[in-house]
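Progress note, sequence design subtask.
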């Protein structure tokens, strides 16, 4: 649990047409923040994650999403955090999630120019051919091992 930083210019475009600064200044800022939180929660659900016990809040002023509730396992918790943070305009995710069945936490990697899953695998595991484990750990947010983007944050699970 804690605060995880993300790159605000990268990610899914879920906040509508307004920037976080425009949301703060809008007369209906509370409604826009609620709509943004709902959009993030819906996105989490589209990734095959059960959102029934999940609460998502968005604070435009701090560019933060807060995720709370109980995840069934560590991998699901980490995927929820990734879904919340890999959103354009979000800088931080306040992780207030608990885990029903805790296990070892993953490491995190911010994708930079020139990164490939093979290169990331080589860096963390010492073996470029273990890229599939990183890909599978980030499914369904990743649709292909070749489709990562600069600024994206990835889970790097412990070696299986």
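Output:
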């Amino acid at each position: 649990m804690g605060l995880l930083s993300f790159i605000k210019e990268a990610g899914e475009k879920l906040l509508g047409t307004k920037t976080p600064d425009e949301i703060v200044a809008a007369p209906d800022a509370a409604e826009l923040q609620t709509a943004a939180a709902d959009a993030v929660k819906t996105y989490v659900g589209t990734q095959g994650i059960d959102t029934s016990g999940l609460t998502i809040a968005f604070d435009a002023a701090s560019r933060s999403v807060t995720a709370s509730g109980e995840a069934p396992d560590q991998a699901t918790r980490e995927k929820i955090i990734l879904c919340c943070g890999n959103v354009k305009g979000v800088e931080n995710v306040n992780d207030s999630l608990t885990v029903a069945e805790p296990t070892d936490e993953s490491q995190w990697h911010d994708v930079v120019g020139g990164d490939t899953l093979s290169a990331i695998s080589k860096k963390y595991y010492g073996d470029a051919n273990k890229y599939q484990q990183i890909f599978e750990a980030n499914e369904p947010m990743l649709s292909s091992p070749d489709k990562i983007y600069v600024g994206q944050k990835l889970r790097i699970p412990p070696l299986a």
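The two ends are 23 Å apart (CA to CA). Work on this subtask will continue into the next period as scheduled.
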